[in-house]
Amino acid sequence: MEEFEALLNESFEIDTPEEGSVVRGRVLAVEAGQAIIDVGYKMEGRVDLKEFAQPGEAPEINVGDDVEVYLRQVENARGEAVISHEMARREAAWDRLEKAYADENRVEGAIFGRVKGGFTVDLGGAVAFLPGSQVDVRPVRDAGPLMGLKQPFQILKMDRRRGNIVVSRRAILEESRAEQRAEVIANLEEGQAVDGVVKNITEYGAFVDLGGVDGLLHVTDMAWRRVNHPSEIVTIGETIKVQVIKINKETHRISLGMKQLQDDPWDTVEAKFPLGSVHAGRVTNITDYGAFVELEPGIEGLVHVSEMSWTKKNVHPGKIVSTSQEVEVMVLEIDSQKRRVSLGLKQTMRNPWEVFAETHPEGTRVEGEIKNITEFGLFVGLEHDIDGMVHLSDISWDERGEEAIQRFHKGDVVQAVVTETDVEKERISLSMKALDDTFTEVVGGVKRGSIITVEVTVIEDGGIEVEYEGMKSFIRRSDLSRDRSEQRPERFQVGDKVDVRVTNVDQKSRRLGLSIKAREIAEEKEAVQQYGSSDSGASLGDILGAALNRDDE
Fold first, then answer.
1. What value does the CA radius of gyration of the chain take, rounded to a whole number of Å?
2. Alpha carbon distance 514, 519 (integer Å)
3. How many Cβ atoms are within 10 Å of 181's Cβ, its own excluded?
4. Nearest to 464 by CA among 482, 449, 479
């Protein structure tokens, strides 16, 4: 008896399914929207028919069908087993999906609902979340046509404990596109000319569809000339011929060019634009360091800021030229390898310092406005936007330069005389002193060695002050006579007329060096030469006496 009881209990344990497991059952009946299922060991349960229906479809279940159900509870209050076909499907689906996830295999499913941030996908019993960003390679405005369609998905992540699955449709599309790209790229070669359709235009270029794969046509490869925006050359939807410049096998990036299919204007640039030649061009771009000028389509040269103007040295190029302006430029240098042309704007005009030197020789009187006042002089504006400088020492004869400069202000119109023009250093020296140079007028015929008659105006201990044609000079005591006993200032009186010899003509100080002593020595030498020699035995007095007697006759 005990053995029978043990066997009976053992059979109970074997035949009685465990709660929380998936078991097979047979459909006994279909009634009132439910299927009655025998799950074995005289246990029956009920499952709503909708659990046997695919999204949007009618349930497919018939009496006698074998189905899998999930045993939630062996017996409820009505003595029936609590079972679920949907949960059985879910469990089976999770097992299948976990294996697919581990093997990185695609899974099949259908989008059946819309939720915040994306969609719900039925993966054959398990519900997954499809984020909006993972629906397609480009944003999808209307996902309606995709709803309910059986299609492959890639599992991005899953958590069975929390019941979370995230899938992607985009990954599948990108993979298939990558395969398609690889096939197209395999048939392309660098240097090959192909037709493509412009799909998109950006600031830096255009994307061209080459039949399933896009290539980038950069703005700098559209034409030999400067292109400000790609829309100047191409339009969306246009079919264009391009050359494959470079193919990156790893990233599948393709660089395209249009200008490469045209003649390179740089091949003939040296013949067309010889050094020193002058050409008309159009300003295409202005920078801080200069302006770019187009000589012909595809050939641009740079006029460096230093070659823009003879006179405007520290001015932004935009103050001298403007974009699209037609200008004349000279070719200064060509580097065909670096594809650079150096141009000059100022070289097409004469150097204003050369012109000034030709038209204003030294001594020319000029007039101009004071442009600037510095600690060493005045800058005066002259013709052709050039300046001349009046140094402190050339402002006034009567005042020190530091004092004289105080009388002038920026904007004053002044006159001066050109004293020097240095074309290379671009300097013009002016003098205001030269405007009122009575000294030069007075002493025009007076030279060193001349004998002139002066009038005594002041008698001092150290000598006498004399005047010649309104100009004052001072004769030192030692120059009053060759005879020391006669070197006495007091022997002269104011108003006396005295003959003196000019020993120096100093233009800068406007002073004459005068000496009575030098005149006497010169007269003695002249008398000796005319009337005798020191070797004749005649005394100097005899010679001078004879000379005087002869003069009297």
1. 57
2. 9
3. 17
4. 479
Contacts of 312 (CB under 8 A, 6+ apart): 319, 320, 385
Locus of tokens 């660089």 = 255
13-16 long-range contacts, Cβ below 8 Å, gap at least 24? 15/40, 15/41, 16/41, 16/74
Q: Mutual orientation of helices 516-531 and 540-552 as an angle, nearest 10°? A: 80
552: pLDDT confidence band, cut at 50, 70 and 90? very low
Residue-wise pLDDT tens digits, 321-343? 999 899 999 999 998 888 889 99
Mean pLDDT on 127-154 = 83
Handedness of CA 267, 272, 274, 278 (dihedral sign): negative
**What is the total residue count of the chain?**
553
Q: Which residue has the tokens 């599309």?
A: 173
Task: Give me the pLDDT at residue 78, please.
Answer: 61
Is the whole model's pTM more than 0.70, yes or no? Answer: no
- 95-133 as b/e: b if 16+ CB within 10 A: ebbeebbeeeebbebbbeeeeeebbbbbbbbbbbbbeee
Assess contact for 483 and 545: CB atoms under 8 A.
no
Which is higher by pLDDT, 308 or 50?
Answer: 308
Segment holding 500, helix H or strand E: strand 497-506
pLDDT at 510 over 80: no
- State the residue for tokens 């006396």: 496
- Residue-wise pLDDT for 426-455, tens only, equals 899 998 887 766 666 566 667 888 888 889
Vertex 223: Cα angle to 220 and 225 (nearest 5): 90
Residue 415's nearest CA partner among 436, 397, 398, 440 is 436
Kindly give the residue spans of alpha helices, DSSP state H, lying in 429-515: 438-442
- DSSP letters, 377-411, are EEEEE-GGG-EEEEEGGGT-SSS-HHHHGGG--TT
Burial per residue of 41-80, b for 16 or more beta-carbon CB atoms within 10 angstroms, e otherwise: eebbbbbebebbeeeeeebebeeeeebebbbeebeeeeee
